[in-house]
Amino acid sequence: MLFKIKSYLFFLWRSTNQHGVHSPFVYNLVTKCFYDRDKKASYVSITSIYKNNASEISLKNLKLLNRLIGYLKYKKILITKNSSSFIGKVLSVDNFTTIYYSPEDLDQFDFIYLDIDQFKKHPGLLDILLSKTHNDSLLLLNSINKSKENQNIWQQLHNHPKTKVTIDIYNLGFVFFRKEQEKEHFVIRV
User: Fold this and answer.
1) Strand bridging mode 172-176 / 138-142
2) Taking a C-beta distance cutoff of 8 angstroms, is the pair 115, 124 a contact?
3) According to DSSP H, which parts of the chain are helical?
4) Model pTM?
5) Is 2.60.120.200 the CATH classification of the domain at 2-187?
């Protein structure tokens, strides 16, 4: 419990809003997607799905993930086997996507959702998943600040040579591979 409190206070100290972002791609993502407060028709379904499933992801972040898919126009989504299957339901509400549950299903994915604890169980998983990404793919991890071990995994991903843009919103970590961008890390309050 003490670790979580310290971790969150450190996050708040380091974090910024859209005014601290100097990347046009990230600025637009934050202002047009992360901070989009318009009520969406999909939120009723998402709330219903949330109430029927135990989740480490808040309802607020589930709505964000649903908006993210529409904003980035992702179609091919991988939800790894050990992750909550209800995430696929949330992502597909009002988005025209195909949800896959195995990396072997396709050569490349637009969006990969992964429970960060899977890296602890499967050390070679990162290389497999990175081979399934393209320039505009997103690797999204949950619980990045839940423990010191999770923070270390997140730091390794942040420092990986293939990653270009990482965004920490405390509970979720976004990893983009955009070759046209300089390597940057953002800590954003959502």
Assistant:
1) antiparallel
2) no
3) 2-14, 24-29, 42-51, 59-72, 86-92, 117-121, 125-130, 148-159
4) 0.91
5) no
The two three-digit tokens of residue 98, written as one number: 């195909």
pLDDT tens for 99-124 read: 998 899 999 999 999 888 888 888 88
Q: Is 38 exposed, middle or buried (0-12, 13-18, 19+ CB in 10 A)?
A: exposed
Q: Where are the domains of the chain?
A: 2-187
CA distance 172 to 55: 13
Residue 18 identity: Q
CA distance 15 to 178: 22
Residues 165-184 pLDDT 10s? 999 999 999 999 999 999 99
